[in-house]
Request: fold
Amino acid sequence: MGIEFDKDRPIYVQLVERICGELVSGVRQPGDKLPSVREFALEVGVNTNTVQNVYKQLEQMQLTETKRGQGTFITPDILKIRSMREDLKRQLVDRFLNNVETMGFTQEEVLQTLKERGGI
Amino acid sequence: MGIEFDKDRPIYVQLVERICGELVSGVRQPGDKLPSVREFALEVGVNTNTVQNVYKQLEQMQLTETKRGQGTFITPDILKIRSMREDLKRQLVDRFLNNVETMGFTQEEVLQTLKERGGI
Amino acid sequence: MGIEFDKDRPIYVQLVERICGELVSGVRQPGDKLPSVREFALEVGVNTNTVQNVYKQLEQMQLTETKRGQGTFITPDILKIRSMREDLKRQLVDRFLNNVETMGFTQEEVLQTLKERGGI
Amino acid sequence: MGIEFDKDRPIYVQLVERICGELVSGVRQPGDKLPSVREFALEVGVNTNTVQNVYKQLEQMQLTETKRGQGTFITPDILKIRSMREDLKRQLVDRFLNNVETMGFTQEEVLQTLKERGGI
DNA sequence: GTGGTCTAGACCACT
DNA sequence: GTGGTCTAGACCACG
Reply:
C-alpha cells in the first residue's frame, strides 16, 4: 500500500497535485466518480482525515462536486478542465525556465540534457 | 526586509536551495564568505536559528566550511561545485520530463510552450 | 527529571551517543518505537527542540525512521545495527590505544590497571 | 600551522588535555618553559586569547607557574606530576571499561579487538 | 564580531 | 498524540 511522498511538502498538497494531473492527463474523465475517502486513503496509505482534506481542496477549486450519499465526482465541465490543463502546462514550463535561468544554465546545455534524458 | 517564501515548504529548505543556486550559477564563488548568520537572517527576514539550520545543512552537504569565530565560507573545492551543478541540472530536467509525462502533455505542445514562454 | 551531562559537550551529541549505545547493547531492539519527543524531553530534562535535534541526527544516520503522526522507530535493518556495533567497538578501542600511546603509558601498566579496575 | 580539533568540544579544553598528556608522557619535563602565548598560538593555529585561557587553566590546576617577564613554567614538583599520571591512567581505563560495559561488549571481543588493533 | 547550543512557547500536518 | 518548523531571546567559545 502506498506511494512515496516528498518528505518536505504536505501530503495533502501532493495528493491534490496528483489528482489534478490525472484529470489533465485524462486518466480520470469529467463526470467520473472518485474513490471513496476510505478507499482512497487505503490505496495511497494515508489517514482518512488527510484524504478528506484533499477532497475539500478539490471542491474549493471547483474541480469536483460532492453528491450526498453518492460520492465525489469530477466536474463534467470540460472547459474548466481544458483551461486547467493549459494553466498547468504554462506553470510547469514557466517554473522550469525560471529555474534554468536562476541556475545559470545555458539553453544549449539544457537542450542537450533534455535530449539525453530521453525526452524532446 | 525579506523575500517571499513558498508557503508549503520549510523556509530553511528553500534557503538551502537558493544558496545552492547561487553557487551553481556563479553568483557566489568558491572561497567566498557567506553573510554572517545574523546578517543573513536580517536580510531575508527570518530568525537566526533558521539560518543556523540552513548553514548546518550546507556544511553537511560539504558545500561550505565554517571557521570558528570567522564565518562560513564556500568550499574552495571547485570539483564539488561542478558536480553539484551537473546533478542539479539533471534533477531539474528529470523532474520536468517526469511531470510532462504524468500530465500527459505531448512533446510538441511542450516544445511550443517552451518557445512561446521565451526560452529555448 | 534528568541525567547528568558532560558540561563540555553539546547535550544533543551526548544523547545521540547514548541512544546509539542502547541500540548496540540491545537495550533497544530493531523496530522498537523510541519515546515521543515530548516524553523523552521530559525524561532527560531537556527542551523538546533538543530532542528533535537528536532524533533528526539519528534519522540522518539511518538508524531510525519516522512515521508521520506515529512516532520514531528504530530501523528494522539488523545489518545496519551490527555494522554500527563493530564500528563503535573499533572506535572505542582505537581511541583508547591512541590515548595510551600519547600519554606514554606502557602496555604492562595499562593491562594491570585494567585488571585492578575490575575488567578484563 | 595547526592541528585538528574535535569539532564538538571547546578548543581550550582539548589543548589543556594535550599539554597534560605531554607532561605525563615526559615530552615536557618539570621546570621546562612552555612556549610563549603567541608562539603557541601560532604553532597550533589558534587565537592568542584561546591560549591565554589554556595557560590560565593550567595554572589553576597548579601544573604551571608564571614568572613575570620570564614566561610560564611547568611546576618542578615531580610528585604532583606523578600523581596526575596515575590519575589520568585510572581515568582513562575507567572510562574505557565504562564504555565497554554500557555498549554491552564482552570481555573476549574487546580483548580480541585490542590485539587486532595493534596494542596489548 | 563569528558560529553553536539551548530554552520557552507557538503553530502546523498527520494519525 | 506524533514529529516538524519557526520565533524570540539567552549564553558560550572563539577571533
